[in-house]
Structure formats: C-alpha cells, structure tokens
Amino acid sequence: MTTKSAAAAARATVYGYPRQGQGRELKKAIESYWKGRVTAEALHADAIRLRRTHWQQLTEAGVHEVPTGDFSLYDHVLDTTVMVGAIPERHRDAVAADPLAGYFAMARGTQDIAPLEMTKWFDTNYHYLVPELGPDTVFTADSTRQVTELREALTLGLRARPVLVGPVTYLLLAKPAPGVSAGFDPLTLLDRLLPVYAEVLADLRAAGAEWVQLDEPALTQDRTPAVLNAVARAYRDLGALTDRPKVLVASYFDRLGDALPVLAKAPVEGLAVDFTGPAAANLDALAAVGGLPGKRLVAGVVDGRNIWVNNLEKSLATLGTLLGLADRVDVAASCSLLHVPLDADAEKEIDPQILRWLAFARQKTTEIVTLARGLSVGTDAIRGELAANRAAVASRSNSPLTRDPAVRARVEAVTEADGRRAQPYAERAAAQRAHLALPPLPTTTIGSFPQTTELRTARADLRAGRIDSAGYEKRIEAEIRDVISSQEEIGIDVLVHGEPERNDMVQYFAEQLDGYLATEHGWVQSYGTRYVRPPILAGDISRPAPMTVRWTSYAQSLTDLPVKGMLTGPVTMLAWSFVRDDQPLADTARQVALALRDEVADLEAAGTSVIQVDEPALRETLPLRAADHAAYLAWATEAFRLTTSGVRPDTQIHTHMCYAEFGDIVQAIDDLDADVISLEAARSHMQVARELAAHGYAREAGPGVWDIHSPRVPSTEEARALLRKGLEAIPADRLWVNPDCGLKTRGWPETRASLENLVAAARAVRNGLAAS
Length: 772
Ligand code: GLN
Ligand code: ZN
Description:
Blueprint: H1 3-9, H2 25-34, H3 40-61, E1 66-68, H4 76-83, H5 92-97, H6 99-108, E2 118-120, E3 127-129, E4 132-133, H7 144-155, E5 160-165, H8 167-173, E6 175-176, H9 190-206, E7 211-215, H10 225-240, E8 246-250, H11 259-265, E9 270-274, H12 282-288, E10 292-302, H13 312-323, E11 326-333, H14 352-355, H15 361-377, H16 383-398, H17 405-412, H18 425-436, H19 453-463, H20 469-490, H21 507-510, E12 514-517, E13 524-527, E14 530-532, E15 536-542, H22 549-557, E16 564-568, H23 570-575, H24 585-605, E17 610-614, H25 629-644, E18 652-657, H26 666-671, E19 676-679, H27 687-695, E20 700-703, H28 716-729, H29 748-771
Parallel strand pairs: 1-5, 4-6, 5-7, 7-8, 8-9, 9-10, 10-11, 16-17, 17-18, 18-19, 19-20
Antiparallel strand pairs: 2-3, 12-15, 13-14
The structure holds glutamine (GLN) and zinc ion.
Glutamine binds at residues 446-448, 499, 505, 566, 614, 616, 656, 658, 741-742, 744.
C-alpha cells in the first residue's frame, strides 16, 4: 500500500544518547560544581558543549532527527518533576533560592533535608528519582529546559525532536509523598497533569518542534483496565489539542500487550515500538490490530540495552514486514542509548577480532542509519555494510571464544541431581550444628568491611605500577589480619575476610573467568554522576584457577573461628554484566554456575565450612511481564542450586539479598535451598522475617538488625528489640544476627561500635533464652 512513500522517507533516529561524554566530562563538571570549584554558568556551558557534541556525532553518522531533552544533569525523571512543577514541599525554598542547587538538593539531599527516593528504571541498572505526589499536588508547567535544548539543536540547523517522559508513565513511577496515605494512587492526578503537558507541548510547538516524543515504557508492564483507560483518555485529550506538535508515543523494554490496541487507536500521529528481545512479540500484535494506518511507526530494531552488533539482515526483514503496517516506517534503537557505553572504538585493549562484534552507542547509531538507508533505497545501497555485518556475525558464532566444547559438554552433562543437595535440610542442619558448634543466635556480617582510603590507594598504586602485585598482596593480607582480629575482639561468631581485594563484587570475578570481557571506557550511567563499567559475558564461561581461595584460606589460617567464604552468585553476575544475546540467559547462567561450583568445591576442600553466595540481583532481574516470571525464576534458582549443591551436608551454604520487598519471590527464596539467608530488615522492623514465616520458610535466616545505609550506630537496646521481634517469627535455633548488608561504604568507627552493640544484643537475648 504505502511501501513506496515509506521507502522514500525512512528516517534514522534515536531516543536518547549517553550523557557523560567520552572522558566522562559531565561527571567531572558536576562534581566540580558540587565542590564549589566551578560556577553554575561554567557547568551549563559544559553541558551545552556536550549536547552539541552528541548531536554532531549523531548527525555526522547520518541520523535524520536528533533527540533533545534527553540530556540531564542528574536524571530525566527528576527533570520531568521540575517540568510539571511537582517539587516536594521540603525542597521548595531551596529550588526558589537557587534552581540548580535546589535541583541537586532534590537528587542528593542536604544536611537537613532528605533527597527523593531513588529506584531502578524498569529492569535496567539506571536509577531514577521517584516523584512524590499527593492529593494536594498542584502541577505547573515549566518548559524552560525542554525549550532551551530544542532551540540549541534548531539553531545548529538540525531536525530535532524533544523527548519527554509521558504523563501516564510519570504518574505510574510516582509514590505517595511523605505524610500521604500509602493507598493514594498518583494516577488519580492525571486530569490535573494533562493541562500541564498541553502547555509544554504548545511551548515546544512555538519553539519550532515538528514532533514531540512522549515515552510510556510503563505500558510494557502488566496494566489493569483502569490504567489502560487512563492511557486512552490521556492520549485522546492530548490528541485533541489544536496547538501542539505531532505526537510520537514511545514504548520500550518489553511487549505492549493490551496497551497496543489502545495506543494504535489513539489520535496521535506516531508510535515508537520495540521489536527486540521479548518485545519482538509486538510484530505479530501490530499486524493483529491491523497495523497503524495513517501513522508514523518508529521501529526499534537495534537493541538499545546490549552491546552486540545488530544482525542487519534480520532487522531488514523485520522492517520489511513493518512497511506494510504503517504509513511510514522510521528506524531506531529499541530504547534510549543511555544504557550502553559511548564508543566501542575507544577500546584499544580488546582483540580486534572481538571488537567487531561490539556496538556501543556510536556503532548502534551507524547501524540505525545503515538500516534506514537500506529500507529507503534498497539493500544494494548497503551491500558493503551487509557483507561486513554478515562476516562479523558469522565470526562470532564460529569463534572458539563463544563456543568452548569442554564447557558445552559439561553443561550438557548436568543432571537434575547436580542441582540438588544430597541430604534434605533437616539432616544437613544437624550435621552443620555438630560441625560448627555455634551458639544460638550466631552473629556474622555480610562480607565486606570498610573499604578504606589505604585500600583504594593500594589498588591505584598497583594500577599505576607504583607497587608490584607482591606489594599489593601484602597490603591486602595486612587488611585481612586487621579485619580478623577486630571481629575476634568484638566477639563475632562466624567471621569474614572482609573482601578488601574486591573492587566490585561482579567485576572481581569477571576478571578471573575465561569468556568474560572487560572494557576500559565502557561507562554506563547508574545514577547521577555514578557510572559503572559492566563486564561483558562474551563467550562460554570457565574458571581457569581458583578465585577466592587464597584470601579465604589466609583469613582462616589466622583464627580458630569459622571464616565464611564469599562469592557472587550466577544471577547477580548476569544481572550486572552485558549478557550474550546468542543463547538463552539460562544457558549462560548455567555456565557461570558451574564455574562458581568449582570455586565452592575448592573452598570446601581448603577447609571452609561456611560459604555465602550473594544474590542481591535475584529480584531486580524479574521480567517486566508476570507471564515471564516463572520461567525466569526456574532458571535463576536452578543456577544458584547448581552453584551450591556440590558440597558436603555439614558445609553450610548462605545467601544474601539486599531488599526489603520480596513478596513476589518468597517461593524462589525457598527454592534456592540455601541453609541460611541474610536479608535487609532493619528499616522495616523485621517485616521480612514475618513474611518468611508466613510462607512457611523452614531454614535459617538473618534478618538485618542494623541499617547500614546510614552512619547511625544502632544501640544495643534497639538491636535487642529487633531480635525479639525476629524471634516472634523465627525460632531461636534458626535465627541469625547480622547487619542488613555489607559494610564497604561504612567507616571503621561506626562499624566497630555497631557490631559491638549487635554482639551485646545477641548475648543478652541468648541469656534471656537460657534463663527462660
Ligand atoms: N558480600 C557483599 C558485601 O558484603 C554483598 C554485597 C551486596 O549484597 N550488594 O559487600
Ligand atoms: Zn546486601
């Protein structure tokens, strides 16, 4: 039908771009401003320069329409809060006095005023600041930032499209403000919010916007009919406005499901739809609703969340199918490129054979442009690119790095029994009790002790060659000696070595596993000015040598008390890395699990009787759609059990998770079959202990009695009260005493004081138990 005009018109575009700059200039500029070393004007000037550089990169690569408003000095949801005037009461004076300082106060808090809460942006590792709304919230439009950035791009002669968080997603991401009843539903504010969006749209039109993009990723989660009605109403009202640019509603991260027909019917001019990963289901769904006649479809065919080269031929096939379904089809990444590093070409240490498999933001941009060209003028025009792409894709699937026969054979040979402890819990518990001879309510910590300046200096010295690895290891050993003797003095029952050798709980293992790849410059924003460099699960995973045994054994050699071995679990390894896209996640998890299983075996053989396998990411990787939960939890818990089931019955397996809300995964926690689990619980007054008990959880648990996210020292009485609460849910022979999480961000003085109180509390409660 419209194949011809679509083919002539395909534009290449993106929804957002990495903000930091190649040298993380943005981080440096913002942190200098925080320290008072540069003025607000200087920071703004740096930001303008960076935006211009990003647009230039996009334009030079051949992008036809650049995004504006995607840039942020901290977070785009916080920017939306400013745009709609939903500044929390407690920050209003600061914002009025100095908008920039007030903006950062909302993000980071001040001495006396709490920041907004931060939480994960869907299932990515980006964190946004949660809007706080209530029945009294008054919205007012402030389009300054959006208009300014649009003008900057238009002045450069670019075709630009402002990108905004959509009104429904904004409300769905919000929570009731402090003091507002928890039952308050922010979505009830929709009618108040829409006029503000109308005003912003009008301002953007006046500033020259032809299109505006409204991002509604929240529609890729399961939504009730009431929410879908709100979506229909929102876009009916916005669509009916006369003074507005054309509206493109964007969704990403998963399939649209029931929201698709709603959006397809909405009186807006375009939809941007994700066709990668589980969102590939959008293709059939779109056909089923009869396509988008008369609308613009922006097709997200390049994975915006991973770092692998696109299979261009496959994408062209998808795009070809889509041509028949919309008035015009443009090409994009599935989501903002914010979630990938900037430039793979900056990686000089990566073998060029492997580098050709990688596509960061700049390379993805080129792929998008190539696909748009192929779609517009035919594949002949991109013959060279297609040939090179075909070769890269083939070399990856044939490479010995991605396919290690020994690893594959081993995974193949895994049996159901390998993922099951030989004895049921009750028998193991008896064996462990005899073997470990711990007091009731045993005390322990989660693994890390304060990462002091000396430790960081030692690591920097090693990197810079100021000390050699022998010198570095001496410093680590000295730290372990300190940590062990401190714990003995304090009176902890199950000790840890303190993890001083670990820069990061995932990176440390990734660096030692074959098949993993590290980057030098692959920074991705986690939140604000914090960036991480996720390692890449590039090929089949194996463990050439023990990774932790040396340090755990050294620690154990210093004491007669049991020292707990400490590993990062397979699910968390995957969650905080870039994963393979050429095999199911379950397969990758199984490979990592087998490598860790060997480490567990070596720890046990070296005399470690207690081994903790951390899985803080188990819950955060839960798929967005409930229909996908069971399959995920099945492979995730299996990978954990595969890691931990090879041990003797008297070896005690611990696990640890860091969040207070896990209602939807209690069964999975049970399915891990760990002997002991430690969890965050202090702030919620042992809520998790009650939830575990209600579920019938029959093994041991250590709900945290010290909230380590604050420098505050809990008193003995406070810890005692929490323990007594814990005992109401979990009997004394199954209750552990520990902090909420690792102590690496804490200082030594509060660590020592808090642990002393924690031990005193445990002893007092034990004495009480013995007396009664
Ligand atoms: N063992 C790790 C630590 O103590 C666990 C960290 C975490 O749960 N995120 O640092
Ligand atoms: Zn934790």
